[in-house]
Amino acid sequence: MGDATRRAVVELLAAGGGRTATSLAGELPVTRQAVVQHLAVLREAGLVESRRVGRDVRFELCSQALTETAAWIADVAAQWDRRLAVIAEIAETAQVEAVLSENPASPAELSGSPATLSGGPATAPRAVRESGGDAR
């Protein structure tokens, strides 16, 4: 399915049922021989079957094989989604660790003390500092 022409052949077969190589080639920018080669690859993969009708060979999609292929692709996509989520989590953790290593926080800042929650330094009011802790 890595070839654009092959995907186009599959789309045409999906839209039109039993088609000959000649009719498919009439709708594609490739020769009949090229279409026959693509059909051979698809048949070998089990995605297309052929049957003789008079002197024509008609090609049809194998719906069961396409369903199985779609399920496999969905499974692989889900595996990649899980892997990418883990990578994103690792990157986020590394970014947080880098920020913390550049700006080390005191234990009070990490615990969310009231002074740090207000955004300012944890200092007592001036009157308390000057009175030695007794502000009256």
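Second entry:
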Amino acid sequence: MPKPVYLNLQAPINQDVAVKVVAAVRTNLKEGMTELHLLMASPGGFIDPGMAIYKFLRAIPVPVSTYNYGSVDSVAGVIYCAGSHRVATPHCKFLIHGITWTFGQPTTVTEHQLREYIGQIEAMKRNIASVLAEATGKGQEDVEADITKSVTLTAEQAVQYGLVHELKTALIPAGVDVVGI
């Protein structure tokens, strides 16, 4: 039976979460999902799995709406941008910030390796800025500047920024099942 589906993503973004999101969406598509509503509260996480979720959601054949009901930070903001309709609660926030690279244990790198890491960081920043610029209508250079300086947006500021289309308190219709990721 065709139906809208509500998924709740309340977790840091990593490869395991990306696999679960894709699996949940694929399963629901097979079961006749007519639209996807992705409820989000995430501190962000790893960029590659986050970008994969974003690209997957943009490629599915049903409308996607995204909802921020807490904090959508870092790469979770990219996933949020997959929504053709983006909603936020009045007291939520968004964090747009620069790229972090974790080396783990003390690591020795060559000059060549360091330049390679910097190249990867710059490419990630451009990709994130491109997604945010497309979603908000802002110039990519402006978004890159915001990424560099780190910007925290309230719900109202996110509307002005172009990230959020609508503010509302009630996000889930009565009687709807919400599936956790």
